[in-house]
Structure formats: C-alpha cells, structure tokens
Amino acid sequence: MLSLPPSVKIYVAQEPVDMRRGFDGLSGLVCDVVKEDPQSGHLFVFSNKRKNLSKILWWDRSGYFLLCKRLERGTFSFFDETARGASSYTISSSDLALILEGIDLRGAKRRPAHDDGFEV
Predict the structure, then answer these.
(1) Using an 8 Å Cβ cutoff, are 93 and 10 in contact?
(2) pLDDT tens-digit series, residues 54-69
C-alpha cells in the first residue's frame, strides 16, 4: 500500500501518452495538459494507449522520480468519475495502489467510514 500524506494529490492524465517520454517530457505534460506544477510534490500518473504501461512522475524537493510499471497480462483500469472533457482527474492513494495491482475498481463500492456492518 502506498503511504502518502493527505496533502499529496494524485492526478491521472485522461488521455494516453507516448511512453518514450522521460522526466522532461512528462513534466511538460503536467504543465500543458494537467495544468499543475510538476514540482508541487503531487503525483502525476500517465498510461499508454493499451493501458498496460503506466508511469508516475513525482518531485521530492531535490529531483524527479519516475516510477514505471508494466502489467504482463491485463490492463490498468483507470477510470474517470469527473465530467467528460477534463484533461485529468484525482484519485486516492488506496485506489492507485489497487489499480497498479491490476484490480478493476469499476463497480466497487466503498463502505462509509462509520459503517461497522451491524444493523441496529
């Protein structure tokens, strides 16, 4: 499980990108497409057209990290719960961890935090 402070947001780019891009190319996309500062300390997630390869760009005050993951079978199930036409959307760190494991979250329901499962 990813352990990130609550102040860190995770932005997912809506459109697929060329996975040959490195630090500079992806940081340029953060500015141009996601409309955020790539050195903000937030995570920026990109995937390819086939959705089997994902890259995460993150700035840690001294430089960029570029995390890559390729699924050997299946695809990443990045989903959009925002209005159509948005260039990016945010997800939680727990959702990102599950998606990176190859788990499809479409149709999954979260229980309310106060629900203990017992009926009164």
Answers:
(1) yes
(2) 999 999 989 999 999 9
Domain ranges in the chain are 10-100
User: Which two structure tokens, joined as six digits, stand for 65?
Assistant: 């990290």
Residue at token pair 């479409």? 106
> What is the predicted pLDDT for the residue at 119?
57
Query: What mean pLDDT do residues 88-100 have?
Result: 88
Q: Is 23 helix (H, G, I), strand (E, B) or coil?
A: helix
The total number of residues shown for the chain amounts to 120
Residue recorded with tokens 């390819």: 48
User: What pairs with residue 70 in β-bridges?
Assistant: 53
pTM, entire model: 0.83
Q: Residue 45: how many CB atoms within 10 A of its CB?
A: 23
Distance CA 39, CA 58 (A): 8
